[in-house]
Amino acid sequence: MNALNSLLDGFSTALTPLNLLWAAIGVLLGTAIGVLPGIGPAMAVALLLPVTYGLDPTGAFIMFAGIYYGAMFGGSTTSILLNTPGESAAVVAAMEGNPMAKAGRGAQALAAAAIGHFAGGMIGTILLVALAPTVADLAVDIGAPDYFAIMVLAFIAVTSVLGSSRIRGLASLLIGLTLGLVGLDQMTGQQRLTFGSLQLADGIDVVIVAVGLFAIGEALWVAAHLRRTPGEPIPVGRPWLGRDDVRRTWKSWLRGPVIGFPFGAIPAGGAEIPTFLSYVTEKRLSKHKEEWGKGAIEGVAGPESASSASAAGTLVSMLTLGLPTTAVAAVMLAAFQQYGIQPGPLLFEREPELVWGLIASLFVGMVLLLALNLPLAPLWAKLLRIPRPYLYAGILFFAAVGAYAVGGEVIDLVILLIIGLIGFGMRRYGLPVLPAVIGVILGPNAEQQLRRALQISDGSVTGLVNTPFSVTVYAVVVLILAWPLVKRLVGRGRNVAA
Amino acid sequence: MTTTSQTQERTEPGERRSWLREHSELGVCVLLLALGVLVLTDALTMDVDIAQRGPIGPKTVPIVVGIGLLVIAALLAVDVLRGGRGQAETGEDIDLSEPADWRTVLLLAGVFLATAVLIEPLGFPLAGALLFWGAAFALGSRRIDRDPLIAAGLSLLTYVVFNNLLGVPLPGGPLMGVL
């Protein structure tokens, strides 16, 4: 089936009134969450996981994707007006955007960011339409050893590329894998780490782990260090751009996705690296070098476009390979598991309505977001005045709702608090949260694929590397592992030469 | 922990305490070690009498994870003793220049546990409202006129959305029985 026809079918799914409503709710929530400090898109999707118990998968994923894209739009508003980024992806937006706001050009900065997100998201999603079916076709024959290789890649990438310390990343991953072991072994029914408890025999629900680590852990950590006087946002009017500004920024908007999209698709930490690379590129290409650091509009336009495009790239890996490259993708993968759907190459064959409805809704969401953010930015900025006690009390409240909704068990609330305290400790001692979440979500699955692969090969380890696909993936894994070593050797060589 | 710049007399116990405080991250190593031992004990005491399918049984992966935990605990300990420190997470509402406010954290945990106990006898609307109000109070909000109203409104609305619209059952408790 060709991609364009599928996409048109997707639009007929996305444009039903109910799915339009979910897209609208998603982008509204997403923008609010992006603007609000303290809540990231990953936490928001985690808190909303309980809706998967009552909603059809298409509607739920349309909403989640709206949140993901919306948070990108909203995050830059906080960066520009408050100089404290709402999301890690929006750090770069503060570098030029905030000086612009201080100089009275906040409206232009917001417009450059919003249109940048729109352009980046559109180009990224078009690339997604063009590439995803091809990748899925290429990967359609992959079997147990290949799935296992992809999961190993996810584990290694998430511990090695993110964060400053590999040891701490690995510690976090192992904590997640341990949590994933709790319960009955899927192949033999053997109890593991249940200590005879019936409740634990069911395993610890992924929703509880994600909510505990992302929401409770974050709320408690902020509570321990709550800033008593939150910053004041710079007041701003309606975003608009003059002709000169457009002349300066249109190339940056188009360059952003070239950097953002590929980085989103590989497990390299989501939008942080590409936004920074885009910033550096724009700075080098700029004709107005004297403005940099004081509010150069290209420094807002390029990175913001790159960040939205990277979100589209992330979806390529998640939908076609089941490989989560960011925290949001990891939580969305958990949602797929709740529905018993396995993302991967077969997703495009088995659930065309879901996949193409989701992709089409991204285009719808982008248009909605531009309409919401351009005229209404000053209104969104008002969200920054919400009293912090309400914000964090609300996070705890919705976390409790989510955990209780999983099974109506009080013990789940206690487990949630314990996992929240683990999340608190991890933040205190610099253990990144994402590897633990990926460990819980992919761990059990990886074990099953490993055992299945070895079953097929009758115990021979060569059964893990007998396909070109798995060999390629392991080569990438080795490359990631060896990279710091190579860099050190090259660095030393250079020093000797100099 | 975060800041310990008090001028104390350099006595033996004081020195030891400040060393421990400086190296509190070793506690993480101890926890990882304990977790590793726990996982390994559980795996090794497993009696696999159920017919095993395939060459890898239910023990193998737990043993690998357990050994991994022990190794990582040791590596982290070496890193900490060599002066490596985990970067405490930063954020827009986080002020790391002040020492940690343990009172608030304990209060919040207490409020949360109380909610877990109360949710079945009181029902979700009441217990949820108490959770929100209690948490806002612990975080420093003192608007007696406004806080309970917001808490009650939010809790009731959430109950209706989940219970009636999304079809996720939450306990109504005696209050919903009356209404």
Automatic annotation (TrEMBL), chain A:
In the UniProt record, does the keyword Membrane occur? yes
Question: Superkingdom of the source?
Answer: Bacteria
The reply on keyword GTP-binding is no
Where are its TM segments located?
Answer: 20-49, 61-82, 109-132, 144-161, 167-184, 204-224, 315-336, 356-377, 413-442, 463-486
Taking every annotated instance into account, which residue ranges of this chain make up the domain DUF112? 20-437
Indicate the secretion signal residues.
none
The record's section on InterPro entries has: DUF112_TM (IPR002823)
Among PANTHER family, the record links this protein to: TRICARBOXYLIC TRANSPORT PROTEIN (PTHR35342)
Record protein name field: Tripartite tricarboxylate transporter TctA family protein
Organism encoding this protein: Streptomyces jeddahensis
Automatic annotation (TrEMBL), chain B:
All copies of the DUF1468 domain together span 28-171
Highest taxon of the source? Answer: Bacteria
According to the record, the segments passing through the membrane are 26-46, 61-81, 102-119, 125-142, 149-170
Pfam families (UniProt xref): TctB
Mind listing the UniProt keywords for this protein, alphabetically?
Membrane, Transmembrane, Transmembrane helix
Instruction: Fetch the InterPro entries from UniProt.
Output: DUF1468
- Spell out the coiled coil positions from the record: none
- Protein's name according to its UniProt entry: Tripartite tricarboxylate transporter TctB family protein
